[in-house]
Specification:
5 strands, binds tryptophanyl-5'AMP
Length: 329
């Protein structure tokens, strides 16, 4: 059976962007693939974060994985930090990626730009190396991610080619990024030229946000001049973003969404309908989340998941250690 793997960093409250670009699609893979979904908690340390906030976000993220339809009987759900092989493979792989290619990563450039240039953490720079370890330990065939993570998976593909060529063996499986056709890059509601991100209170919709507040944010979303509901990213970025959100949550194409709104010429009516679909989706998730978070399920799932993940990861790590010449492996 082919394998699928993906993860999310518990650096903040999960957004509608995370849901549409990634989380919503994860359960689809558990039907056809051997599915691994983890919490990238070591990646969360690449920028300063409060320890209690990180712990709470981690627990919330696992509860949201379950609330969004991941079934622990079909998907191995685990914490990156529970499987020490991630760090061990990371320390081997860092010798096979180059500083030049890491410094060209868009995410590194964006994030480091905002920091004091004398205090850019090594972990932030080397972030994609650990991500390669995450993917390669499980020999994932596919990696479902949003648009912004595609470049990291492509870097991982270069690494696979480099490593397998160097040792003249198929040590690692070549992973394929899978980006959703609709909603791979959801934009901020307050500035639709910027990506929706976990740190943008005004333009963001959070999965655990109060429903009234979500409705308000959608009704106040920045839109453009005119009254037609048309997908036109250049000239109508706000309307295009809302159309994309609507289409993704309804599981239809953007063209079908345009057709649905062809007789609607009032942005207010359009936004009301978008808000109702978003609220319907999020309220269902919140209801499930509330039941899960008040039980022991998160800890039980993580305990079981760590065992299953370790069993797979330890075989890959040993094989890599043997290949590179570590004595006694
Ligand atoms: P993270 O935590 O930043 O985001 C998690 C997932 O959400 C997607 N995403 C979006 N999709 C659409 N629109 C948006 N506005 C939006 N914002 C975020 C991201 O593309 C991602 O798929 N490095 C990863 C975590 C990671 C990982 C891995 C993923 C670590 N190791 C191995 C896959 C495989 C990250 O920081 O995602």
């Amino acid at each position: 059976m082919k394998r699928s793997l993906s993860g999310i960093k518990p650096t903040g409250k999960l957004t509608l962007g995370n849901y549409i670009g990634a989380l919503k699609n994860f359960p689809k893979f558990q039907e056809e693939y051997e599915n691994f979904i983890f919490v990238a908690d070591l990646h969360a340390l690449t920028l300063p974060i409060d320890p209690d906030y990180l712990k709470n976000n981690t627990r919330d993220l696992v509860a949201l994985y379950l609330a969004c339809g991941l079934d622990p009987n079909k998907t191995t759900i685990f914490l990156q930090s529970d499987v020490s092989e991630h760090s061990e493979l990371n320390s081997i792989l860092q010798n096979y990626l180059y500083m030049g290619e890491l410094s060209r990563m868009t995410q590194f450039k964006d994030k480091s730009k905002k920091l004091n240039q004398n205090a850019i953490g090594l972990g932030l720079f080397a972030y994609p190396v650990l991500m390669c370890a995450d993917i390669l330990l499980y020999n994932a065939d596919v990696v479902p991610v949003g648009e912004d993570q595609k470049q990291h998976v492509e870097l991982c593909r270069n690494l696979v080619h480099r490593f397998n060529t160097r040792y003249n063996k198929e040590i690692f499986v070549m992973p394929e990024p899978i980006v959703p056709q609709v909603g791979a890059r959801i934009m901020s509601l307050s500035d639709p030229t910027k990506k929706m991100s976990k740190s943008d209170e005004k333009g963001d919709i959070f999965l655990l946000e109060n429903l009234k507040s979500i409705e308000k944010k959608i009704m106040r979303a920045t839109t453009d001049l005119g009254s037609d509901i048309k997908y036109d990213k250049e000239n109508k970025p706000g309307i295009s973003n809302l159309l994309m959100i609507y289409a993704s949550l309804k599981d239809i194409s953007v063209e079908e969404a345009e057709e649905h709104f062809k007789d609607c010429h009032r942005y207010g009516d359009f936004k009301k309908e978008v808000a109702s679909v978003v609220i319907d989706t999020i309220s269902k998730i919140q209801n499930k989340y509330n039941g899960i978070i008040s039980s022991n399920l998160v800890d039980e799932v993580l305990k079981e998941g760590a065992k299953k993940a370790k069993a797979v990861a330890s075989i890959t790590l040993k094989n890599v250690q043997k290949t590179v010449g570590i004595y006694g492996k």
